[in-house]
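One chain shown below:
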Amino acid sequence: GRYHAHHTELVMAHWFHRNPLKATSTVNFDVYRTGQTNAEASKLLAELKEKRTKLLGLIRSPESDLAEVTTVSTEYISTLRGIIQGPAEEAGKEGGIRHLVVFRWTNTVQGKKVSEFLDAQFELVSVLLNIGLWHMKHAAHLAANPDVAMEEAKEVHRTLRIAAGIFTALKDSEVQKLHDAGDKGADTDVRILDAYVMQCQAEAQEVTLARAIELKHKHSLVSALAAETSKMFMIGGDHLSTLDQLQVGKWHKYMAIKDEFYKAYVRHCNSLIVTRTCND
C-alpha cells in the first residue's frame, strides 16, 4: 500500500535538516615503505587505501544502494580495526602501526575547520560518523518521493534506526578509545553525538506515526506517538542548546520547530477525541 498524500506531507513533508558529510584529504599511505612496518602491516595499509577510496566514493550519493554501502563499510571498518589492533607480533608495542598515518577530517558543524590526528582510531570514528550521516541522507532521499511506498517507508525507518545505532556506538564505545577527544563542538563532542542519536530516533518515530495514521489507529495512540515524537525532538534540541549557536543554530531550530509541530498535532488530536475524527 501507499501513504495518502496528506499523510505523507504531515510526517515526512520532504523536510529534514541534514548536516554536510565530513570532508577528508587524501591519506599518505607511503609510510609503509619506510621500513617501519613489516609485510603484514604493509598489506593492511595497502588494502586500507583501496577500500577507503571505494567507500568515500559510494557515500557521496544518498542514492547509493543500502546493501552495497553496508558491505563496503564492513570491509573497510574490518581492515581499519586490523590497523588499530596491529599484527600479532606488534601487540604490546607502544603505538604500533595505529599511529603511523595522519588522518585529516572536517567536522559537520564547524565549517572548514580541520581536525587531524596521527591515529587510525580517529579515522575509524570519522568514517563511522560519515556512514551514520549517509544513512540519514539516504532516508531523506527515500522519504522525498512524493508517493512513498510502504516498503520505502520501512527502509526509511530501518535506515534511521541503523544511523541511531552507529551514533550510539560512537558515543558509548569508539570515541572513548581516542587518546585525544578533540575540541568542544567537534563531532566527537558527546552533545553532538547525542543530538544525532535523538534526531534519528525521532525521525524514525515519525515514520511509525505515519503508519499509525494510515492504518487509522485509535486517536489516543496517534496522540501518544505524536507526544513521544515531540519529546524526542525536544531532547535533541536540548543537547544542542549549550553549543555555539552560530554553528548549530539551524540544526537547533529544526529540532525546536519539529517539537512544536508535534505538540500542536497532539493538541489537534485531543480536541477531536469526542468526535473521533483525529484520523480524518
In short: The chain has eight helices and two strands. Helices lie at 5-11, 39-58, 66-85, 120-143, 150-174, 190-214, 219-240, 245-271. Residues 245-271 form the longest helix (27 residues).
